[in-house]
Amino acid sequence: MSILYAFVGVPFTMLVLTACVHRLMHLFTYWPIALCQRRAGCLPRTAASVHFLVLLVVVVLCFLVVPAILFSAIEESWSFLDAFYFCFISLCTIGLGDYVPGEQPGQKLRPLYKISVMVYLFVGLMAMFLVLRAFHKLADLQGLTAFFQLSHCDEEEEDEEPIVETGPNDQPDADRASSKPLDPSSRVSYNSINR
Fold first, then answer.
1. What is the pLDDT of residues 46-68, one digit of tens each?
2. Cα Rg, the chain, nearest whole Å
3. Which is nearest to 33 in space by CA: 123, 138, 144, 139?
4. Transmembrane stretches, by residue range (predicted)?
5. In the predicted structure, residue 91 carries a pLDDT above the cut 70
6. What is the distance between the alpha carbons of residues 130 and 58, in angstroms, rounded to a whole number?
7. Which of 14, 15, 16, 76 has its CA 20 to 30 A from that of 123?
8. Distance from C-alpha of 129 to C-alpha of 124, rounded to nearest angstrom
9. Is-contact 131 55, C-beta < 8 A?
10. DSSP character for 78?
11. At a CB cut-off of 8 Å and minimum separation 6, what does 154 contact?
């Protein structure tokens, strides 16, 4: 039964997380970067870099440090490092299960505590995904994604040869324009696709 639950639940959760983060990107990423560009007159790269650093610090404080302090206070057997380890492992989706909150006998308001932990994990996953998306946008602006793409083939001579040999009068003008050899220096990416 748990395999069926995971088979349906994990993709559905990722779909919901992706949809939520897509909506939150406007509020927490695009709007602050545009505001920084207009008010401070920053360049897009500078605005994106400053925004990413601020977003990263806020997420680390709000979703790793502060919850670790709370968990270390609520869970009697956890130190701050144990609680920080739980927060980091859980929000990075590693989730080893060696630390589970709310498992101590006699805990007050245990059902409410379990629901609160579940909400924290869901919102924390959205925050981590938001940081990853903001980093991806920053990497696109800085040109880092092009750095990690595979290089083009060295077979430039083969690319310049036409596939089908035809005479100059056999093709209409529109076909001649579209059958130009590919330029090996041009880089096509997903960002160049019209949406």
1. 888 888 899 999 999 999 999 99
2. 25
3. 138
4. 6-31, 52-74, 80-100, 112-132
5. yes
6. 12
7. 76
8. 9
9. yes
10. -
11. none
